[in-house]
Design a protein that fits this description.
Blueprint (H helix, E strand, L loop, with lengths): L1 H15 L4 E7 L5 H12 L4 E7 L4 E7 L5 H10 L11 H5 L21 E2 L4 E2 L11 E3 L2 E2 L3 E5 L8 E7 L4 E7 L3 E5 L6 E9 L2 E10 L1
Parallel strand pairs: 7-13
Antiparallel strand pairs: 1-3, 2-3, 4-5, 6-8, 8-11, 9-10, 9-12, 12-13
């Protein structure tokens, strides 16, 4: 029997050994204890959440989560959907409308035209952007501190791929063919900011992700 339980524990360790627990703090607008319940409830409904705390004295949400299951984009969007502005995403307009005229109505002071997705002002640090959803490509780094972006494609792939990079206004700013299994692209000419990468195969878009150029 002891061997049986040892085997179970060993299997669990394998399955969860690569999970990483992280803590982050970000701005979340609200007013009162009712806001606190609403914000924390929205986050706790998500998979991968370990703990969450919203402080109405500092307008800050502190969350601990498993980054193999969820990320800050999912968490902030969940809060925004119930009517509260978050550091990267504004509240859903209809949800905010339900707060108007109550103690939960807060001043909407976040200037989203100046928001830098990936930067947490309360921590003064950059964090990775959205997780990649297609295992065929390995794109790194998602936050480019120097000049180069690396794209890895399986060596066995014989397809011809084209990469396009768009700025936050949707303007095409960079275009290149992916020729080798491990290509490196010089993005030194791009200004700091948020960009979207699209990879196509025979004119069919098959992969999208987001990067930040510091």
């Amino acid at each position: 029997m002891n061997k049986f339980f040892t085997l179970i524990i060993f299997c669990l360790a394998i399955n969860y050994g690569y999970a990483e627990t992280v803590n982050h703090k970000f701005i979340t607008s609200g007013n009162c204890i009712v806001c606190k319940f609403r914000i924390e409830e929205a986050v706790l409904k998500l998979d991968g959440i370990i703990s969450v705390h919203w402080d109405y004295n500092t307008d800050a949400t502190t969350v601990e989560y498993n980054d193999q299951i969820t990320d800050l984009h999912i968490i902030m969007k969940a809060i925004a959907q119930v009517g509260h502005d978050t550091e990267w995403y504004p509240a859903d307009s209809a949800a905010y409308a339900f707060l108007i005229g109550s103690c939960c109505e807060y001043d909407r002071i976040i200037d989203y035209s100046k928001v830098q997705i990936g930067f947490l002002s309360l921590e003064n640090t950059w964090v990775s952007v959205e997780k990649q959803s297609n295992s065929l490509f390995n794109i790194y780094p998602t936050i480019i501190e120097d000049t180069f972006l690396n794209i890895e494609v399986p060596a066995y792939s014989t397809n011809n791929y084209q990469m396009r990079i768009f700025n936050s206004n949707g303007t095409l700013v960079y275009c290149a063919d992916i020729i080798h299994a491990n290509d490196k692209f010089d993005l030194s000419q791009l200004a700091s900011g948020n960009y979207f990468i699209s990879i196509s195969d025979n004119k069919t878009r098959i992969f999208n992700t987001r990067i930040i150029k510091k």
